């Protein structure tokens, strides 16, 4: 059996190497010669140094700064099987993110394209993208979110009630909390029980398949991801059919889309969605919203521990909220929308951690940036880490300092939630979840880091590798 496995792995590796070699030899665009930079070794290009920097504490900034010093703000490389041009700076951000005249499209990796399905928001462009965004963005507006506030508040309190005098892996807890919230919002899923477990375990497999090797053979992480996606779609199919037959009625995300926007067979109305579009986009929201919010919450708690002055100032804001409240009442919707310092702490977290270190685009026509000609079909990555650590905009960029956000910043210098037509439609939800959670955490507890480890996971979304273990104590009244 072992011999068969060994042979199988050998054949697989040879196959993969030949495909990569073929890619490297046949697809190297001649026009790239005009762009400075190195394509590295045959087949692997510069993937090894990219990966090793990627999971180091400073993330890809080492990889970027070495090359930016040598080649300037625009350079080419070959990483993860792709010829890529990296760019940074405000001009590049403006051109790539506003995507004027449809000059670029989002550039998903093959694994993402396959798992999310062809009708995902991330794979649509132009007018179709605008329409889809309007439909799925509606329930994520501030007004649309109000009805979920009570659930979010209750889940935050219940999660935190379990933390006292325990060792906690913050990333795990944040993940469970954000998944319960999104499961409830989308399809009124109970926060505990068999369905929640099924939802959670399928989602975890789907999520890890994104960073897997793009080989869809039985036994691979990618194949497991596709299978888990199919199981998730079965869950959604049965919920959609219960809703449609009138057996079940809920005023959640699915409820509003099924009621208002479901397209009947053969119907032409472009403002309605087919079941496939519904499922692809629910999965898109889950994938785009879960790891990002989980990571942001975890980094924020870590940064607070490392910056006691900021923590104290934040506590003051939240103490004042409680003092101004009639005794016995709980956090309210209006209080959570008036946490001005908390909002700056969230922005500074997104700047400092830069959870999505680059934004990927594909040129859909020829154009020019910073004097360089970009050709149709090229992969272009906007290096957001350098933008967020530009000392001319953010003095002493490594310092965690929320007061940087006291005054409005110049456009395209802070891209925590992106900018332009692809700007994050879930940002209000993310801010709401984080603000509510932080309110209860800092009013209830103090915590201490258990490991001084700063490595990050080698995944698309930057997260602490050790999941940030802490030990939690009740806050004494004089603290
Ligand atoms: C702190 C948490 C979050 C962060 C830091 C974040 C960040 C971002 C960024 C930077 C983009 C733009 C990427 C680009 O231009 O290539 C984006 C897009 C997106 N985000 Fe978020 N996000 C967060 C939470 C959420 C949530 C909670 C949801 C949904 C429930 C969500 C759904 C999406 C979707 C669907 C897109 C793609 C939009 C499009 O292509 O039109 N995100 N996010």
CATH hierarchy, class of one domain? Alpha Beta
Q: What portion of residues belong to β-strands?
A: 5-15%
Nearest-integer average pLDDT: 88
**Estimated helix fraction:** 40-55%
Identify the bound ligands: protoporphyrin IX containing FE
Question: What would you say this structure looks like, in words?
Answer:
The chain is α+β, with helices and mostly antiparallel strands. Helices cover 51% and strands 10% of the residues. It has a domain at 26-107 and 357-385: Uridine Diphospho-n-acetylenolpyruvylglucosamine Reductase, domain 2, CATH 3.30.43. It contains 18 helices and ten strands. The strands form three sheets. A five-stranded mixed sheet has the order 1-2-8-5-3, with helices on both faces. The chain has a three-stranded antiparallel sheet with strand order 4-10-9. A two-stranded antiparallel ribbon has the order 6-7. A hairpin with a 2-residue loop joins strand 1 and strand 2 (82-87). Helix 8 packs parallel to helix 18 (427-444). It starts with a helix and ends in a 5-residue tail after the last strand. Protoporphyrin IX containing FE is lined by residues 106, 121-122, 133, 284-285, 288-289, 292-293, 296, 350, 355-356, 359, 416-418, 422, 424-426, 429-430. Its main location: membrane.
